[in-house]
Each structure stands twice: as structure tokens, then as C-alpha cells.
Design brief:
Layout lengths: L15 H17 L1 E6 L2 E6 L5 E11 L2 E11 L18
Antiparallel strand pairs: 1-2, 3-4
Pfam families: Amphi-Trp
InterPro entries: Amphi-Trp_dom
Protein name: Amphi-Trp domain-containing protein
Amino acid sequence: MAASTHLLKSKDTYSRDALADILTTLADRIRTGTVKFDQGATSVDLGFPASVRLDVEIKETPKPTGTKHELELSMWWVTSPDGEPTPSGGIAIS
């Protein structure tokens, strides 16, 4: 099995309104089935299948200056060599 490849990574701070705009744009692009991410000279095009796994994690961590709150959204899917989504569980009938 091949190791994963990081295509793009970003850690930035946004105002609540700017973040909402980014998430709205992301939702709109997911509905079309294609999302393009740009960062400097790097551009990544992602094709979204009809079904995508969404993992949600919410955490609170005490810090000396207060409490750190985290909301992590992780979307993932597996594609077969022909590019079609592979069932993530259950049975497949062929």
C-alpha cells in the first residue's frame, strides 16, 4: 500500500463572516461535484462522488489562558482504480 501524499495544507485565522463565506462556497462547490483549492502556486481539483463520509469531532482543552475549542470536520471517500466510489461497508453485489 502506498503512503499518503499531502496535496495542500492550510492553517489560517478568519473572521466569523469570512469563515461562513468560505464554508458556503465549499458547500456550493460540493453540490456541483467539483471543488478547486488554490494556495499560492498550488492548485488541487477534487471530484466529489455522490456519497461522502463525514466525521465530526468537537473537543474542549483547558489551556493556561482559557479553554481551546475545536470543531473538526473530516470528509473522505475511497475510489477504485476506475475512479468510481468504492462501498465503505456492507456488501457489494455484482
